[in-house]
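Q: Sequence in, structure out?
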Amino acid sequence: MTDKHITFNIDYDKLKIFDEYNTEDFIYPIVLSSPHSGRMFPPEFLANTCLSESELRLSEDCFVDELARPASNAGIPLIAMNISRAFIDVNRDKIEIGDSMFFDKTMPENAIGSRRCRVGLGVIPRIVAQNKPIYDGLLSYAEICDRIKFVYDAYHKRLKQLITKCYKKFGFCLVIDCHSMPSKICNIMNENQPIDFCVGNLFDESCPNDISQFFAQQLAKDNQYRVEFNKPYSGAFITFNYCQPRKKIFALQLEVNRSLYVNEISYQKKTDFQTVSTTMSDSIVQLGKFLLDFNK
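A: Exactly. Output:
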């Protein structure tokens, strides 16, 4: 990265930060979140990045919001980011900020120098998948603060509202944070039998084992799919931040092998898209029914 100063301002009034579905009538005690499926890029951002839109989408959880839509239509609220995670990653703590990204600000004392920050995957990513740099210079800290205020904070404010509403109605809530994972990662442990779904529960810390096991059994669909717990992902910020087991607010991170339903190069849906969507959504709905009995 050079010492070039990159300055621009986003017109946030023109952006729809997220979409939400079925947020009025809660039938099941679940809230769905899709933080990485956004594919919208502010034009001011695109004019100041050194990557193409196709390259910027390398880290995107393609169509995960659409995979989960049938579950939402059955009576489960869904909030889905519209803005790309290459612009801002709402599944990070907002103080996970890289310490060498800015030309006009030294880092605050409470900034987290995490491993993710060091490799460029903090709340404001410096790279996308395949280690491609997003910028060829240094950013304005003031502009980054606006991203956090108008995008990050807006998403989390609404997610918190939905969790609170669910909790008030049912006395408990399960947050399912929905993602996709690159097929390359799914093949690492067993090339002959790649992982199809991963259920992350922070190694049994964010959700009771009975709930996690039931969900995994539904996803496996009579062993048609390989389901793993916490491999390769156990859960990230949303899973960790929103689970309060003692209060009966639980969280799971759901990952689906991207190659099952989309071409990872062209971003085109595969013919099996609807099959995967049905499996995923039916499993979520069955889990909702299970939870209604689980809390009796």
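The chain has one domain: 17-46+63-91+141-294.
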